[in-house]
Specification:
heterodimer; A: 173 residues; alpha+beta; two-stranded antiparallel ribbon; 10 strands; B: 320 residues; mainly alpha; Formate dehydrogenase/DMSO reductase fold; 11 helices
């Protein structure tokens, strides 16, 4: 997934779309907005980011899970099988992005990249409602996909590359 | 771009924001009891392995059973922490070698039979007679007793191995979670094992041991406390030599919110004072014999409580 931080206006449509699409319980969110301001006035630099699970290539949450509930699905999305989850919270402590939470029903919940929509050929709910088209979702292994093209054309960063997890949400700058 | 940094986020997930608090009192209680049980099994087995001809007190003979009782309390705390309790059986439908919690689940399952056989073989003839007098138990206990006696040294060695595994894993459980810089140190495994040995020894000192057993336990306790102090020093040095996230972990214990609790409860009252009492007590027979072990137990619990809380508060989000 790519997030164009130059287009994001932090309108939170992505957050609401996700909550509605995935019936995210009150008081929780699978994606969220971060508004970051750096520098000294008047030399300021602001960045808006729509953040979520980074669906890491080396996911520490999957390594920490004692039951195999946390796993990497086909295509690279990191998912939680509710039936296998004991709610031990090891994955929550293992995630450097704090992208997981305990669902009120007991299992651990997180962004799924809306795989149920992707299987129907649709984009994730957050991507589909973004009014500035700052979000893009696709196959990074396909050099002709929109996300691959954006990464070729733009400067980008990932969050906390020092963790070595290989995050797969890219922030275009 | 350098200078100030302001971050505003819309995320407000319960137990995640503003500071991770996913694990509550249950986890330090379990880590404490797990370490204590590891110490009891190791010390009880080592005493018999090293001094097979010495008589043993009733307290030491019964200790493996007390250890299993304490471990069950710890596992009850773990169970209470699960958000999806009905799925607890899932731990035993998988073995995930990358997950210390999975290793721990299976180690716990190993500790019970090993500890039980350790305890059975420790019983004196009178205690055995009392048990075998119960008709319902005798058919099961008689062959088990025969087996526990026949393979006594193997059982004792297995008890040491299971205890070391249990003590190490309680530290590695946290130490492998690289997302929390406070825990991201290889020292935690041996540190919790040393602390487990020390708290196990302290627990034993509350009971009526004979003179030689008492000397053995105090010697091991002194060794474990010295080792624990060295490992704590190594942990702090490791943080000091690390990157900015490690520096922040150091700050938590040197100037930050857990400084006074860590240095007063763990280092001073939990290690240095009882160490001095045990070293002096051997020559001068200080009164308040129960004070040193009580301080060690409180210090061991404080160590786990503080490291768990500080670890949950240590995160990469401090450095956007």
């Amino acid at each position: 997934m790519t997030v164009d931080t130059r287009l994001c206006v932090a309108c939170k449509a992505c957050v609401l779309a996700c909550k509605a699409e995935n019936a995210v319980p009150d008081g929780f969110c699978r994606d969220w907005l971060v508004e970051e301001t750096r520098g000294e006035f008047p030399d300021l630099h602001a960045q808006n980011r729509s953040e979520r699970c980074n669906h890491c290539s080396e996911p520490p949450c999957v390594d920490a899970c004692p039951t195999g509930a946390s796993h990497v699905a086909g295509g690279g999305a990191v998912l939680v099988t509710h039936d296998k989850c004991t709610g031990c919270k090891a994955c929550i402590a293992a995630c450097p992005y704090d992208a997981r939470y305990v669902h009120p029903q007991g299992w651990v919940d997180k962004c799924t990249f809306c795989l149920h929509r992707a299987r129907r050929g649709e984009k994730p709910a957050c991507v589909s409602v973004c009014p500035t088209f700052c979000l893009e979702f696709g196959d990074l292994a396909d050099p002709d996909s929109d996300v691959s093209r954006r990464l070729r054309e733009r400067r980008y960063k990932v969050l906390h590359p020092e963790t070595g997890c290989g995050p797969n949400v890219y922030f275009l700058e | 771009m350098t200078g100030n940094l302001e971050v505003v986020t819309t995320r407000h997930n319960a137990a995640i924001d503003p500071v991770l608090s996913a694990w509550g009192w249950e986890i330090p209680v379990y880590l404490f009891l797990g370490g204590l049980v590891a110490g009891l099994l190791i010390l009880g087995a080592l005493y018999e392995l090293l001094h097979p001809d010495r008589p043993r007190s009733r307290a030491l003979r019964a200790m493996p059973f007390a250890a299993l009782g304490l471990l069950s309390l710890g596992m009850l705390a773990l169970f209470l922490d699960l958000a999806h309790k009905l799925h607890v059986y899932r731990f035993y439908l998988a073995f995930r070698w990358t997950s210390p919690m999975s290793w721990g689940s299976w180690i716990l399952l190993l500790v019970y039979p090993v500890g039980f056989l350790h305890g059975l073989g420790s019983l004196d003839p009178a205690q055995r007679e009392t048990l075998l007098a119960r008709r319902a138990l005798a058919p099961f206990l008689r062959p088990l007793l025969r087996w526990a006696d026949g393979a006594r040294r193997a059982v004792l060695k297995a008890s040491v191995v299971a205890g070391v595994g249990l003590g190490l894993y309680t530290g590695l459980l946290l130490g492998t979670l690289a997302a929390r810089p406070q825990w991201n140190t290889a020292v935690l495994g041996p540190l919790f094992l040393a602390s487990g040995l020390s708290t196990g020894a302290a627990f034993l000192l509350f009971f009526r041991l004979d003179e030689r057993e008492h000397g053995f336990v105090v010697r091991w306790d002194v060794g474990a406390i010295v080792l624990e102090l060295l490992l704590l020093g190594a942990m702090l040095l490791g943080f000091a030599a690390g990157d900015r996230s490690a520096q922040h972990a150091l700050y938590h214990l040197l100037g930050g919110p857990w400084t006074s609790a860590f240095w007063s409860l763990v280092v001073f009252a939990g290690l240095l004072v009882p160490l001095a009492m045990e070293l002096l007590g051997r020559r001068r027979r200080l009164p308040l014999a129960a004070l040193a072990p009580a301080l060690i137990l409180a210090g061991g619990f404080a160590l786990r409580w503080i490291l768990l809380a500080a670890g949950q508060a240590s995160s990469f989000r401090e450095f956007p």
